[in-house]
Design brief:
The structure is a homodimer. Chain A is of the alpha/beta class. Chain A contains 11 helices and 11 strands. Helix content of chain A is about 35%, strand content about 20%. In chain A, α2 packs antiparallel against α4.
């Protein structure tokens, strides 16, 4: 059932015990929203735990409360509400087993949300953290740093520091309010940008695999499993090539098993979500991905012609 | 003589003919401020030209008005005001020769400004473009895109898209207002981030020169002249290494002549401006630079011990 922001506030006020979760493969908004809400609820004297059913990215560990995030343990935590953030209930792993009788309160900014939660507050916002800022602001609270930092991280990571097309005047206003509270953007950005030496050096090795197709309008990086296994993260590698002059679609294919590849696709406007969906994946118009049960060579042979065809259709 | 924002407005209203300039080695704020002010003055029915005594970065050429920027031609343009933006009068080349009788109106956010202009409006702001936004907003004008785009570019480049320590709540407010006018941040950021293929591939070659010193607290890239000559720009290369975990100072030394090296230094807090000054350069606490009349090997031998000593003094 869809609910309003005011109703969210009502449920947050009524409940005493909250279990908070967010999507697997968690990002800055998933974790930032969870920790920001947890810190807020605890200040209101309530019980609030964050369970996420996946590994957590190490570069987010500076956030207050991070070390308290747990995997679901299968026990019944008897919360009044299971709060599901930044996703619908399809991507939260085994967390529901810890809250069998609880009402599900879902706060999300993805239009693809399936709407199956007991209560869903869905809005077109840059980040779930932006929605939480509005909810907490409307309830008149101040923003101590343990609430402000996670919410700022959620917004900053989902908007690429106020650069992506989801950035709105509201996003800027919320960012400004969080600076007033004491956020130091340079400290946060430096922490978010930290990379292990192996990953920095790995960028050079990844660039050695760079190939251009379709008269330079498609660029690709193709990473062997032996290389990927040495990298803590390859998330930033596609940014190296999407900025090449003339490139309209950038693709990164990495082998995670002998016959299993993860694919990231970025575009300057061509709908790559459509393409990812055809390969069993999904995402946004300009940023999408899929997983292919193929070797690296097979995945490349399957995808590159489709991407080249997509740019050929554009003027 | 120091003047107030209101006095700037008065002079902009009184004058009819304006010659606008900014510092040599111009960046996004120098060019953005110049073009934003020019577009505003022209809409007020005034004559306004932009002269900059240097080459212009090609990645800023998307800004409206860019193609009209000229080098000073030595003729007397007889403006009422020579408007000097984002610097004092020491770094504007031969432009004053085109305005021998004009009053100099200086608008700048660098505290190092020498204060020698006839009229100086100096304020602690993220960018000169942020100061211009306030000036134009106070005069009640609307912001057509030919004013808004250059001002947004000035702020976005000087703050690294609202990430650097100079970003304030005011910066966020101004950014939000410019989005309301119709700025699309993703379009602007994509244009600003564009890199030629040679530069993208050059990142891999540059990373091959990576060396760490002082137990990994200092990282350096050392670029030979033959390599530098092939690169349209090496400005972004230092960002590759300043993000390495544990690195407190990053340095890039590039040979531009056989016995002449340009040096860029970045830190996470250690005052590298002091170090640059000792080598005849300058800058900000966390971002400074100098030019050394040495071979690449000599420059490296001169600088690395000083940087290692600087980090050794920190806990």
């Amino acid at each position: 059932m869809k609910i309003t922001m005011e109703e969210v506030t009502t449920y947050l006020t009524q409940g005493q015990r909250f279990l908070i979760t967010a999507h697997v493969n968690p990002d800055g908004d998933a974790i930032g929203s969870s920790l920001g809400l947890q810190a807020y609820l605890r200040r209101q004297g309530k019980t609030a735990e964050v369970f996420i059913d996946d590994d957590l990215p190490r570069n987010l560990s500076f956030m207050p409360g991070f070390s308290g995030i747990r995997r679901p343990d299968g026990a019944d935590w008897k919360p009044d509400f299971l709060v599901v953030l930044d996703t619908d209930t399809n991507r939260i792993g085994e967390v529901p087993k810890c809250a069998p009788g609880a009402k599900i309160l879902n706060i999300d900014h993805h239009i693809s949300n399936d709407g199956k939660a007991d209560y869903l507050y869905l809005a077109k916002r840059s980040a779930t953290a932006e929605m939480l800022f509005e909810i907490l602001e409307s309830s008149g609270v101040d923003f101590p740093l343990e609430v402000a930092i996670p919410l700022y991280v959620g917004i900053a990571t989902d908007t690429g520091f106020f650069r992506y097309s989801n950035t709105t005047p509201l996003t800027m206003r919320v960012g400004g309010r969080l600076l007033e509270v004491g956020i130091r953007p340079s400290d946060i950005s430096e922490l978010l940008e930290l990379k292990p030496l192996t990953v920095v050096k790995g960028q050079a090795a990844a660039l050695d695999t760079l190939e251009l197709f379709a008269n330079g309008r498609v660029a690709g990086l193709f990473l062997e499993k032996t290389f990927v296994d040495q990298m803590e993260s390859t998330d930033s590698f596609i940014d190296l090539i999407r900025v090449i002059e003339g490139v309209e679609i950038a693709v990164l294919i990495k082998a995670v098993e002998e016959r299993r590849c993860r694919v990231s696709i970025r575009s300057k406007g061509i709908n790559v979500s459509d393409i990812a969906v055809r390969f069993g994946g999904g995402g946004h118009i300009r940023a999408a991905g899929c997983t292919l049960n193929m070797t690296l060579a097979e995945a490349k042979a399957a995808l590159v012609p489709v991407l080249s065809e997509a740019v050929a259709k554009e003027p």
